[in-house]
Amino acid sequence: MPALATTHSLNDYLKLPISRYREQLRQGNAKNIEVSYTHRSKPYQYSIQLTKTSCNYGGHRYWWLCPKCHHRTSTLYCAGLYVCRHCIGANYGSQLQQPIDRVFSRIADIRARLGWQQGVIHGIGAKPRYMHSKTFDRLVNEHDRLSAEVWQSTLDKLGCTS
User: Fold this and answer.
1) CA–CA separation, 26 vs 49, rounded Å?
2) Which residues make beta-bridge pairs with 33?
3) Fewer Cβ neighbours under 10 Å: the N or C end of the chain?
4) What Å distances lie between residue 9 and 48, 65, 79, CA to CA?
5) SS3 for 92?
6) pLDDT by residue (tens digit) across 98-135?
7) Whole-number Å distance between alpha carbons of 130 and 133
8) Are 84 and 73 in contact (CB under 8 A)?
């Protein structure tokens, strides 16, 4: 079994998406945005530079320039200063999952797509209206295969199989 992750996930940090400033950015030709906040009882106030790229069908899109490494990014994370995920050295939550956690996540995604109650213990529900039977059958087959994998893993952990 893989070792448990000991690094931080991006979920552990406050995030600052550029989309939060969408309305402000539409009003002018901004080069930077002033931010002021308190992090761990220490006040911060500084300017974060912006850049923009042209879109294929006209207009443009704004990006943050990381204050530390100056890479273009759509989201900054608070580690004292707001910096990009590479400067923090954190991973996405899904990168830190154990294999059995990935199976549970996939089962939860399938159940949500099918509109079923969450949790493998609740069994199989009805086909959602307007979903193709072929799609429904494929998702149910994947759900059954993953559920069997979870149950087998549980039995193996309990020592009930030989």
Assistant:
1) 16
2) 48
3) C
4) 23, 21, 12
5) coil
6) 888 889 999 999 999 999 998 877 888 899 999 999 99
7) 9
8) yes
